[in-house]
Amino acid sequence: MDIALCCWTKKLHLPIILSMKISDFSKKSKLPVNTIRYYMRLGLLKPDKRASAYEFSDSCLEDAKRIRQYKAYGFSLKCIAQLIELEREPSADKDSLRDLCQLKASQVKLDLEKTRQDVLEAIHQLELQLEQTIKMDKSTVNAIPMELFLLIECPYCNKSLAWQDISLITNTVISGRGDCACGFSADIHNGVLTASNVNQVILPVLDKNLDTNRRMDAQEVSQKSMRNRWIINKLKATKLEEKVVFEDVPNVSGFLLECIEELPAEAYYIISDTDPSVIHRIMRVIRAKAPGHKILFLVDDGIHNTIRKASIDCLLDYHASEIFRKYGYQSQLSEIKAYLAEEAHLIGVFTYLVKANPQRLAEQNTRYDLKQYKLALAEQGINILDADPNTYVSDASYFADNDYKNERFSYFVFSGLLEKS
What we know:
- 42% of the residues lie in helices and 22% in strands.
- The protein is α/β, with parallel strands linked by helices.
- Strand 8, helix 10 and strand 9 form a beta-alpha-beta unit.
- Helix 5 packs antiparallel against helix 6.
């Protein structure tokens, strides 16, 4: 009987309609059961209902196939429902179906174009936010520019350090640790380089509380501003772009602390001191005044600087030699000359006594002796090119060192050049 029925259906060319439960249909259509039920609620799939169960036919498989195709073309489920419903109509002609498809396709194209524009705008906003974040990072997080980081060397072996745990941001170094085979090491934290020899400070901090600056009267402040202006003009004339400028022991009165915003951002600056708290205070002020300048903040023992020899193009001796001389050195230059590049510039201010008590005049090699300072510069190969013609005289009583009461100071403001060896 079954064979006869099969032959009969073949003879009449009637379609064989197979029915499937929802689980079988899910396997064949590769649609999750929950998705099938959702499509049924939208009218995309219309299985026959037998008693309490739904039965899915081959036509449902075709509908599932068309749904997948239409979705791939970007049609919404609402549009797909309309297209499938039209296809199901016996009287639907191909022209009507084509027209509807073209209409829906045009709508989809417009929607996709709007979506594309929205995505492009979102990307643009993200890029602006990223750019702003990078600017904020540079202004709020101190970091060592890569060009200055590459100058860091062991001051005893003159070799590059072996670095580990380095943290970078936009071609700058925020943190890391460097070691040398000789036992020397250096740490970078928040962009400040601290050498291990800082535990054996050679040049202790003077006037850490800046009492000298607080005691200045209006006349001294005005004279100091004039001296700084002369130095700024000389520095600008030296063409500092891509040159390394170095200032040591700025704790008493740092030139870069007061004037760096007037100097070119294209130069590289190194500011060194022996006290971490002094360097961090200076760093905060300078970063607020000149966030775009490339600076290495360095803490070491005051003599053995953690940078490559012959790398400094311009040395700022801004009252620094007075401190060096206090501790028995001829000048700042006598201890740092090895770090100067050939034909490096020396620009600075030296304070000297013009009225001293008789006992001090009788002393030899005093701290504020201009003649000896100039002799020390000449011995180190410095040719004085120019000096500020203005005469500055100050009452020494404003100095934090009370040993200089009732005496008078003047200032030698100059620029010089290291002669070729």
